[in-house]
Write a structure and sequence with these properties.
The chain is mainly β and 164 residues long. It folds into two domains: 47 residues; 84 residues, RNA polymerase II/Efflux pump adaptor protein, barrel-sandwich hybrid domain (OB fold (Dihydrolipoamide Acetyltransferase, E2P)). 11% of the residues lie in helices and 34% in strands. The strands form three sheets. A four-stranded antiparallel beta sheet has the order 4-11-9-6, with no helix packed on it. It is rod-shaped, with a radius of gyration of 26 Å. The N and C termini lie far apart (61 Å).
């Protein structure tokens, strides 16, 4: 449904004396309500539910393009036996992961950093709020699993820590 069709519906409600018009289709829902105001004119209130977001799969880069480089401290998993003794620090919320408090600031932790329980390890931005994430264990950061300014899900692994 386009803007002109919505405006036509608003005019229909206004002229016909209807107080409410509701149209629902598979990809949208629109409700037009007319309320009595002081005087003879009737203001029209339009409410609509957003159309569902359709995600498209990411397209792999063409073979001729150069490979994408990872952030220097971000490392991929290597040996499963080595990983078994490591503790995973996970995201407590959905949001955007930041390794530092600002673009010109140093990262809270890097590979090789020693952390104590309660030390800040990153920030997760959720709904315009910056939440400082603290380490729940003491130990040494072995791997940073997320790139800076990347979206994270609830319970997604962020760091691997070798307990002290």
């Amino acid at each position: 449904m386009n803007l002109n069709e919505i405006q036509d519906l608003m005019k229909l409600v206004s002229k016909s004396g209807l107080t409410e018009l509701e149209i629902e289709k598979k990809d949208f829902k629109i409700i037009i309500k007319a309320e009595k105001a002081r005087g003879s004119e009737q203001p029209i209130i339009v409410q609509s539910a957003p159309a569902p977001v359709i995600s498209t799969p990411a397209v792999a880069p063409a073979p001729s393009s150069p490979p994408v480089k990872q952030a220097p401290d971000v490392q991929n998993s290597s040996d499963p036996q080595e990983d078994s003794k490591l503790i995973t620090v996970k995201s407590p919320m959905i949001g955007t992961f930041y390794r530092s408090s600002g673009p010109d600031k140093d990262a809270f932790v890097s590979v090789g950093s020693i952390v104590q329980k309660g030390d800040k390890v990153c920030i997760i931005e959720a709904m315009k709020l910056f939440n400082e994430i603290e380490s729940e264990i003491s130990g040494k950061i072995v791997r940073v699993l997320i790139e800076d300014a990347s979206p994270v899900e609830y319970d997604q692994p962020l760091f691997l820590v070798e307990p002290a």
